[in-house]
Write a structure and sequence with these properties.
Largest sheet: 4 strands, antiparallel
Structural class: mainly beta
Number of helices: 2
Number of strands: 21
Amino acid sequence: MNWRKMELSWESSKNFSKYKCAIMNSDMKSVPKEVNSSLCWFPVEYHMPLHKGVSFIIEVPDTNISKHCTFIPGGMNGSAIENFSCVIYNISLMNCTWQPGRDAPGDTQYFLYWQNPIPGEAMECERYIKDENGRNTGCRFQNVSIEAEKAYFLVNGSSKDALIQFYDEYIQLYKIEILTPPLNVTANCTRGSAGCIITWQPPLTSHVKGTNCFWYEISIRNKDEPKEAKKDDPSEEVRNDSYEFQNYNEKKKYVLKIRARGNNCLVSSNWGEWSKPIEFGQGKDYFIFVILFLIALGTISVTLLQYCLFKRYCSFKSIFSPVPQPREKFNASTDEDIQTKYVNLPKTHCTEEITMVEEMT
């Protein structure tokens, strides 16, 4: 058995013109196929993961000749990875993640290989995602192309203490893609009965170019509604790349966003990412209220600043000195009313001496 090419070959002592071969997994799902040689190739839609074990049956029609072969993977139970999943985003980027086996030894290291039908070569991960213990728990891929056939993923492991079981899975890549938002979303509104015409372009994908491969969900809500009313936004689903919004009211402000999912084509049926919200409509004019509020706030701020500066660096008494009061004419005191009090000082006695001088003849 060539696992990469899913080719089963055998040898027979007799040459028969026809053989029947079948592959059967653990769920007892059998896929028979009739071939004209001793080589049986199973197409991609018949590919089954091998980590749970598979059986092969080879028969010769119209005879009792048959051969039954069973493949049971070896390794320590509980050492294979768990919760393997992959997602494609931003058109060509892919992330795959997993968890280490619950019973895997502590030194177990895992390695991821994947094989896309085109070009068909198996490739190992180049950018691993590691946990705190240094074990590989995921991988990042770039330049991923989505093909119609399934891609094959294989994660094996190594350890010094035990043989690690492998895990494998076939994945249809378009089913795990997260669609990008629709492009160039616009709303053209008029005052007439036509309302608003909303237009957009399909999201970008690496493998689908048709415009009829998508469903679109359109969400339009009134921006001025209270938060309690915004929990369940009304939405519409359409197949075209345009929509007529008839309940338009030019006095209201609306918020618009759109997302897409696949419709019949090889596109994921899960809803993709929402487009960036855009607003349209006039709505309430809060500009005047904002201007008045800013003016009032500025006036109050300047007044408080002046008050603080005067209080800090100036004295009101020095700036505003008291004005002298004029003298009252009728209540003024006269000179007679002004009395001077004398202090009884001790009296000093002075002796006066007079000397008489006579001229002698």
